[in-house]
Write a structure and sequence with these properties.
Blueprint (H helix, E strand, L loop, with lengths): L1 H13 L1 H27 L4
Helix pairs in contact: 1-2
Length: about 45
């Protein structure tokens, strides 16, 4: 698993568009987690 992650990391370093996509996807994921947390708090689920 670790060698696969290193291989993917190397590929991303050589492919700027792929790296940008992964960064954008990670930022979107953080944003969605925040949205779900806020909604959960608002309706008393958390």
């Amino acid at each position: 698993m670790m060698s696969r992650m290193q291989s993917l990391s190397t590929m991303l370093a050589t492919k700027p568009l792929a790296a940008k996509f992964m960064q954008t996807e990670a930022a979107f994921s953080v944003m969605m987690n925040d949205v779900f947390r806020i909604i959960g708090e608002a309706v008393g689920l958390q």
